[in-house]
């Protein structure tokens, strides 16, 4: 009947490619010719995977956990889709958890770390859980993949290219003719620092002077905080890059209350996309990030570790961040009016 190694040898590919074909994984890149060649060898050898026996033999549950902060956050939508698609292709179940309940002594943590109950964990940023939880995770063989950070247990982390996102958003505003552009973001969290770096690089490349980031919290309140700081400082940028789409919502409300018209007085681009961006008036321009690919890559990384195969960690930069132009941006006003 053959094995995956035998299929890989005959087809001239890696075992991970064979596994992707067998499991129907959508996010492993290969040509149609390669896929057809692998399928032909599978048919020739009469290979039939026995997932139930394999799981029993290796004492696996076929379940992975995904832990994020505030699972209701709309920016996770595409990442969840990528995780579920990749898990479904492997016949795995997914348990969702909120990091707000992942604390030392919690029932959720006990179930996650229970003997054989979870095959792998996808965790958004190590900083969301306390030191004792991290110690528990390090002490167990269950693979943990950090996403949207730049560190992880044993170097196992995956992140989107936040610097590229900041550059794309800023370049769009520069191309419209803006020169007074600012960046509003949260505290010194790594993705925010990277997005500001992309903003600053785009400004310098255009011969413009970047400003320090306007420091705020997170969520919709951050947009309100950013505009409040701008008004208090008496600076009058014509355009603003906002760290995330939720902060953009708060900024819209604050601009309305202050009598600032978007985009006539201030053009706005937010990083990350969500359905609500299209529902705003005017619709909010955003930068779409490869969140589905991030989720799928995290599942595939867990699978590779469980199968003792090599896998690549680091930035998920394919596809690249893409600007979704909407009516919240326009050329700068020829005669700016006072706010």
Which segments are poorly predicted (pLDDT under 50) over 5 or more consecutive residues?
A: none
Rounded average pLDDT: 85
CATH classification class of the largest domain: Alpha Beta
Helical fraction equals 40-55%
Describe this protein's structure.
This protein has 339 residues and is of the alpha/beta class. It is built from 13 helices and 12 strands. The protein folds into 3 domains: 4-49, lambda repressor-like DNA-binding domains (434 Repressor (Amino-terminal Domain), Orthogonal Bundle), CATH 1.10.260.40; 57-160 and 290-319, Response regulator (Rossmann fold, 3-Layer(aba) Sandwich); 162-289, 3-Layer(aba) Sandwich (Rossmann fold), CATH 3.40.50.2300. The chain has helices spanning 4-11, 15-23, 32-45, 51-57, 77-89, 107-112, 131-138, 162-175, 190-205, 220-233, 245-258, 275-279, 291-306; strands at 63-68, 93-98, 120-124, 144-147, 157-160, 181-185, 214-215, 239-242, 267-271, 285-288, 314-316, 322-324. The strands form 2 sheets. It has a 6-stranded parallel sheet, covered by helices on one side. The protein has a 6-stranded mixed sheet with strand order 7-6-8-9-10-12, sandwiched between helices. The N and C termini lie far apart (75 Å). Pfam families: LacI (PF00356), Peripla_BP_3 (PF13377).
